[in-house]
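Lab channel / #folding
Pinned by the channel admin:
"Please post every new chain as: sequence first, then the structure tokens as a reply. Keep commentary short and put observations after the output so the thread stays searchable."

First post following the new format, from NK:
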Amino acid sequence: MTIQEGLWLPEEPAQAGMQDSRALAAKHSRRNSYRTWEFPTQPMSRVPREWRIQSGLTQSVPEDLAPFVEWFYSQPEARERFRWALRDSLDELLDGQRTGRWAYQHLTKTEKTYLGTAVEVNLTKEFAIDNGADLDWSIAGLDIDCKFSKDLGGWEIPMEMYLCADHGERSGRADHAAVVTWIDDDTSRWAAGIVRITDERLRWKRAPGANGDLVRAYNRDNKRKLSDGAKSDVYWLWGGLQTDLPTNLLLHLEREVREQILSASLPGRASSGQQRVNRLFCEVQERLIGRQAVLTVGQQDDAPKRARDARIALRPKGIVVLGHQGSHPHVARALGLLAPTKGEWISTRLVPVSSDDERPKFSLDGQFWARPRGEELLASPVPAPDLPDKRRIDGQIP
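Reply from TO:
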């Protein structure tokens, strides 16, 4: 070893041991290498005819489910929080920053089985739900469980959730209620309901043999699904079928646009992730773009920095990338666009216009700016203004 200014330095790299283990592993690691994925050939979800539900349902609340229903309806912004917990649960498993995945179908079989756990964990945190005595949740002082299925009606119910004399010690101590949840990212649909689990509401089947008696339809884990007739016993929160699961931007882009974005890289160059993010804001204008999309496209660590750098790179092309801070939300509203919130951005091209132009516009340093239209879209771009972080922008909306 050598001594330099009081520091011990190993003579050989191998002597560094654990100090260099991360660097040595990273040289050959494939976990963080850029990957592309094909568009899924199979749908995420199945909705059997017997389990189709509508939006805007009007149902009477069953007396035994009323405490749970009232609890959810009493939570501030419960519906919004619920649907975002579902969105975040799937995004966590996709882990686009490290894997580049943007569809449920890209998950491994093992990961797909964990989605139900992720949904339960995130809903538990979101609503600060207490542990139950016999089940995972306690709501309004009563035990209740959370079940998820990617197929509507496909929830699997264990023995401990309902009374059954034939189950002996494995029988539940009561017919418990369950929150049943479902999402279909392909169609941006979701649903959440509450149902009381009973032996009769679960599936039965004909036993093989001459008698053909009805027997309980267990799977290999001794779980049973709800019978088709039990659909009428589910109280669907917020009126049944919901059609606004927060959008998976990359999944729902036109295929050609998505391919242009994800292929915008130069092999072997560290800037390739930034190039893809730049292309994202070029190709997807006047639509909110969330943090998850930026992470998945860039497959790099710092999504906000990628967006900030794209703002600089695209300004000469007449494109602004608006965020949630400073003058940016005000500019978005002045232009008639949705204003980004934290973790969101929206891009648009700008052109200079006169003060008497009737379209939505804003002014900066005496110059008015608006979104292009008509022949302006074909003209050479004019560099976009450098929007101030704090100074107020003068907006004008006719």
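NK: The first strand starts at residue 2 and ends at 4.
TO: also worth noting, The mean pLDDT is 90.
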